[in-house]
Amino acid sequence: MFGDTIAAISTAWGNSGIAIVRLSGPDAWAIAQRQVRLQTGAPLKPRFARNAVLLDEAGEVIDHILVLPFRAPHSYTGEDLVELHCHGGSLAAQRCLELLISGGARMALPGEYTRRAFENGRLDLSQAEAVGALIQARSNEALRAANRTLDGELTRAVGEIYEELTALGAEIEVGLDFPEEDVPYIADESLADRLEVVRQSLADLLERCSSGVILREGIRVAIVGRPNAGKSSLLNALLKESRAIVTAIPGTTRDVIEAVLTYRGIPLRLVDTAGITENYHDEVEAIGVERARAAMKEADVCVWVIDGSEPLHQEDVDRVHELADTPHLVVLNKADLPQQISEASLTALIPASTVISVSAAEGLRLDELKESLVGLVSGTGALDTGLNASSRQVEELRGAIASVGTGLKALGDGLDQALVSGCVGDARRSLSRILGGDRDEDLLHEIFGRFCIGK
């Protein structure tokens, strides 16, 4: 499908033990052999590493390397491919790359090796996206989720549901095209039962994929509250380091401060904000309050912090009620000081909210707080069976579930099976887009453009 040969450094830039420069395309072997001299006279053999020296334009030795060739289709890209293993260090690898490009290759685009693997049928789109997630994984759990998808678990699960929808669609069409005395080929009750099974299968898969999204992208947590409630102290306690300035003066935090910690393999993206109040004293504080409100809207979870050592302010209760439709927790801070508010009394005032009494200063119940944060977003989803999935794939699954639900409603309303057939087709197309079956060049460019050069 691709007529040219590409080259790029596939290892990280900088000093290291080795650096790998990769060639892929129809002329990969020829270009590589022009730039190296093998240590023995035997020709290159696929999948066998050979000692060689890398030569410059004048035939002088630049580096002692290993040459590892692959023949199509048995390579990462499905094309002829050669890896040149140089000594680590930016200069040797860069000179190797320059020689390959001057020898007829061109510089690879970001993600082009994986794009070629996809185009040549070595990976489907879900597996290709898992490659990117594997590279960007920040925890062991995220790494395992990416590998499960790369091994084809998502592909197989989507494929099984797709095949069932295809079979259903075919049976519906038979009934529509060849009716016998107005009796459908598949009875409405049987069709509804099978669609319900499909919907449940999609819901189960969505739960696994949603867990994978959390493992990869993390949970954005906005720490909000009135001035001097101990928000910055809570951030520092969770991080176990001083990221935010803490003083007894209300309004110390004027801007948004972000930091990341990993708990149970999930990145918690903590956002410390300025105290929210209507009685700000200057323009800078007003801007800080505005940004705090924006952080609340962008967060996956809001943590409203209340100072338990002071009498309860009605403003705190009002703000918590405003968060009723947003995943949130209420933290009663400063439990190490004499308390003016008890956890029980506050829970009675805001029964729809989870209240946790903590001490940022003493580190009390912080693990319980982190567990609650994870539970709010992940629900009952099993993180140890999560599949790496992008937000795009999750939305396609939701679209498929919605289409099946629309079909079930049409059956329940006694409507014609032709409408159900259209819904089944819509669900199939959603699943096909997960695997890259429906080609969209703009989408493919967006996905592979996020990769690094060399992958």
From TrEMBL:
UniProt EC number: 3.6.-.-
Sites where the protein binds GTP: 228-233, 247-253, 272-275, 333-336
Residues holding K(+): N228, T247, I249, T252
Source superkingdom: Bacteria
GO biological process assignments: tRNA methylation; tRNA wobble uridine modification
Residues that, per the record, bind Mg(2+): S232, T253
TrmE-type G domain residues: 218-378
UniProt cofactor(s): K(+)
GO function terms (MF aspect): GTP binding; GTPase activity; metal ion binding
UniProt family annotation: Belongs to the TRAFAC class TrmE-Era-EngA-EngB-Septin-like GTPase superfamily. TrmE GTPase family.
Identification of the protein by name: tRNA modification GTPase MnmE
Organism for this UniProt entry: Pyramidobacter porci
Lineage: Bacteria, Thermotogati, Synergistota, Synergistia, Synergistales
Gene that encodes it: mnmE
